[in-house]
Amino acid sequence: MKLLRKVLWYGFVSIPMMLLLAVLFWKQLVGFLLHDLPFMGETFNKARWENALRCSSNTQCMEVEMACVRGPMYRDLKGNYLSDGTTKEDVLRLLGSAKPDHQNPSCMVYELGMCSGFKMDYDYLHICFDMSDKIKGVRHYQG
Questions:
Q1: Whole-angstrom distance, CA of residue 78 vs CA of residue 72
Q2: What is the CATH number of the domain that holds 60?
């Protein structure tokens, strides 16, 4: 009986406390779950990166893009491989060819797949270089 009373008491206190925290920090929680979480958790793997978007039919391509194989490697890539000063040549050797950024010719774009939010929009890795072709900025965005 004593144990049951203790369990009920802790439940009575902790559940409202968790609900209060969820209400107070809902924006941060939703932002983390939908925008940050899909871009962490895996170490970069060159073979997986290269094969991540290969497909042979429209249906298979959609499934591959929605699987978001590249997305979870983003944080490791940014922290350990794509630091400021890394040369464009090294990036191309590591990640393969990229799409040009038509709005900013000193940047290039890699498709990550449909990773964040509700998997309705594509996410991209955006890498910009300075005049000497060394990284000056790395980010991901939803397009």
A1: 11
A2: 3.30.1450
Q: At 103, list the tokens.
A: 């709005």
113 φψ region: left (φ > 0), alpha (ψ -120 to 50), beta (else): left
Q: Give the chain's domain count.
A: 1
Tens digits of residue pLDDT in 19-74: 766 667 667 766 665 666 677 889 999 999 999 888 888 888 888 888 889 999 99
- Range of the structural domain that residue 128 is part of: 40-142
Q: How far is 112 from 108, CA to CA, in rounded Å?
A: 13
Q: Higher confidence at residue 1 or residue 86? A: 86
CA distances from 28 to 24, 119, 124 (A): 9, 19, 22
**So what's the pLDDT on residue 1?**
65
Considering the domain boundaries, does residue 13 fall inside one? no
CA–CA dist 106, 36 (Å, integer): 26
Any domain includes 117: yes
